[in-house]
User: What shape does this take?
Amino acid sequence: MTHVYLDHNATTALDERVLQAMLPYMRAQYGNASSRHELGTQARKAVNTAREQVAALVNVQPTQVIFMSGGTEANNLFIKGAAGYLRPTQIAVSAIEHPCVAKPAQDLARAGWKVRKLAVGSDGRVDLNDVTAAFAEPTGIVSVMLANNETGVIQDIAAIAERARAARAWVHTDAVQALGKIEVDFAELNVHAMTVSAHKIYGPKGAGALIIDKRIELKPIIAGGGHEQGMRSGTENVPAIVGFGAAAELAAERRVESGQRIAALREQLEEGLHELGAIIFGGRAPRIPNTSYFAFPHIDGETLVIELDKLGYAVAAGAACSSTSTEPSATLIAMGVEPELARGAVRLSLGATSTAAEIDGFLQTLGSVVKRLKGLSAMAV
Assistant: This one.
């Protein structure tokens, strides 16, 4: 059975043009980018070109782009690397952060840092009043994601950064889910560091970057030969980096047109969801255009995902990184959603291949599944 893929926030298919850009560096041009001979020089030039392509997408200088193995490593480098230079005070992270921010932040507690979780409202947006209140205490590090991976809700990072800078804190944003879907401008966000990743924008897995303000210093978390300006030792994954650069260039070309088309598809989807009686989370807040997070009362989200999978639709019960957990979404709990309803959450994330016909087919299938599951639930009572 061929599945209709509606889980683009988990990952995206490698674009054919990205693959073609990568292939030479997986075959004939296989040199180590640190080698001084011709093959090494070719690899170094390719890495430099990719750095320029990623930099252009987020409006920074190429030297500000530090290539990593992905978003998780980049987030860890900022949090642990900043802590390596700053005296322990307070680290403030939103209550809806991805685990690769929340967990390293919690690790700092063992080193004398106080972890402060910034509250969010029922719409999924960080409470700016709580941000201001948090900075009443000395704060060294702040990290708030630009767009939530579950709800798609966009945060006012510039406003948070303004408060953070006034408190002399270093501020970071995880922009992994926002990149390629909305404009992501490092200067306008006014942050000290930002995380991006390739596989969310039709690039390869295993490539990401930390974008940094060159006026701050981070302590590397991987020691070695001093690659990536001394910030990330280890032989560069040239094919993946080249793929990231190609994907970044494509994302810049098609973001506006693609965003408008996908936003129209989500409107079609959510009109149908409302008719079926779904509750949509974060629907009153600004969101990236491809994401819809919803639940039906008294229907388990994991059950719904499994039933839809059997019928050829790939969707998610929350974030892919926590799909094995039976606990309700921490994001929804932070938004004040009751645990029972939160356990019913299902995420759809549209992408470049999504069509109106697929949305129509999904809604018809979903309606049948929901009707059947409600009937089973009524019989059980």
Observations:
- Residues 238-275 form the longest helix (38 residues).
